[in-house]
Amino acid sequence: MITSKNNKGLEKTGNTSSVTADSFEPASKDEIQTSRLHLRVMPAGWIYACVLLILMVSAMINVMNLLVLLFGLMIGPFAFSIFFAWNSLRGIQLVRHIPQRVEAGEPFSVEINLTKTQGLTSGWALTVEDYVHPLESDTPVPGFHPRVWFLRAVSGHTIQGNYRAMIAQRGRYRFGALKLSTRFPLGLFELNRFFVHDADLIVFPRLGKLNVRRDSPSFVAPNSQTMWKSRTNMQGSEYHSLRDFRPGDNPRWIHWRTTARVGEPMIREFDDHQRQKVLVVLDPWIPEAPTLHETDRVELAVSCATTLCTHFTRSGHAEVQLLIGGPTIEVVQGMSSHVLLQRMLDLLATAHPSSNTSLNDLLRRTSSSVRDDTQMLIISTRTGPVDNSRYESSPLSNNRRKTNTSNARSDRRVKFLRVGSHEFSECYQLR
Predict the structure, then answer these.
(1) Per-residue b/e over 347-377, b at no fewer than 16 CB within 10 Å?
(2) pLDDT digit string (tens) for 176-188?
(3) Residue 341: which CATH number?
(4) Average per-residue pLDDT for the chain
(5) Alpha-carbon gap, residue 331 to 323, rounded angstroms
(6) Do 188 and 73 sit in the same domain of this protein?
């Protein structure tokens, strides 16, 4: 479901707010292709044309000067309307700015800049209509027909308009052609032109609320390392070395005194045992003939995995790994950073369920790379009661038992959360 709210175009002034490159993806003028002008006669135009035809035939049959005069007076506005509409669309350039990523169900803004480079007069009563469709389909999204109205476009000036929209379903979407049209001045004709510029938008899953209380049995096991380390604890930890700042590093761990002394950003390197190691496994299983309820379960699981990954990548110095099942198994891992989070969001936005995947096969993919001190969360949509054997007998758990002296300690680091269970509801809720 997509909804939109349209705003009128406003001429740019020195007080307009700037748009950063991180927030918006501007369209390149070289990539924009324009179509030829298309003329569509409106119902009022057909009536007007019929009246003209009747007058012309009557004047020819009856040879009446009054009818000829009336025909001449009416043909002038008819031709002028076409000329004025053509001149209004002449020399128009459109540039669209869209966010790179948005959250499902959250409103976002699309900015459209209109520039008139040539024309005998200004452009009047211009309407820009936008279209969007899923990346894997050419069918436009139903209900998404936002329009931005520009009252006047002065030659040599740029005016700005925007509209608000919301996309309720995660995925990758493509903004297609922009339709520019006008019916000015008499509404007899609609002259339109299409500006083809494809721009993609990633809609990542909705974020929810986690139960991160330290006394929660859902995420914290007795006598084990706490999964949810506070930021203050990490900030007070000892570091063993300094290194140059690299793209993707968390700015929170910049050593400012050394940075000020050497003149270049320096990042703190922490001891390996202090790092929080987390593995989030998403098992989006679905039956071959799913119901609406089962489809919602998958979306809830994806939303939960997204919330967990967002929490861990923003919580500080942690090694986070995401494993996504489905038709193809996707793996992404790294130290907590904005870059890692964006990669995870991109994969979760396009995660597809499957009915042919095995949980053991899913865990086997990462059995060799997960260390003993890694906290593992398995989020699964599989039906039936939660059976520990589903994951305790997996290659990953077997690998952990070989290297751990205490099986109980190893088992406490693995948490199986089945969507729909009471335990899952206590751990996670949608906003």
Answers:
(1) bbbbbebbeebebeebbebbeeebeeebbbb
(2) 889 999 998 888 8
(3) 3.40.50.410
(4) 77
(5) 5
(6) yes
Note whether 72 and 6 are same-domain residues.
yes
Cβ within 8 Å of residue 172, ≥6 positions away: 134, 135, 136, 200, 201, 202, 203, 349, 350
The whole domain housing 248 covers 244-270
Using an 8 Å Cβ cutoff, are 254 and 238 in contact?
no
| 249/311 same-domain check | no
Q: Both 178 and 213 in a single domain?
A: no
Q: Is residue 162 domain-shared with residue 296, that is, in the same domain?
A: no
376 and 259 co-located in one domain: no
> Do 123 and 167 have their domain in common?
yes
Give me the helix-helix angle, 338-349 and 292-314, nearest 10°. Answer: 170
- 126-165: per-residue pLDDT in tens? 999 998 999 888 887 777 788 999 999 998 899 999 999 9
How many whole angstroms separate alpha carbon 88 and alpha carbon 113? 16
pTM for the predicted model, two decimal places: 0.71
Q: How many folded domains does the chain comprise? A: 3
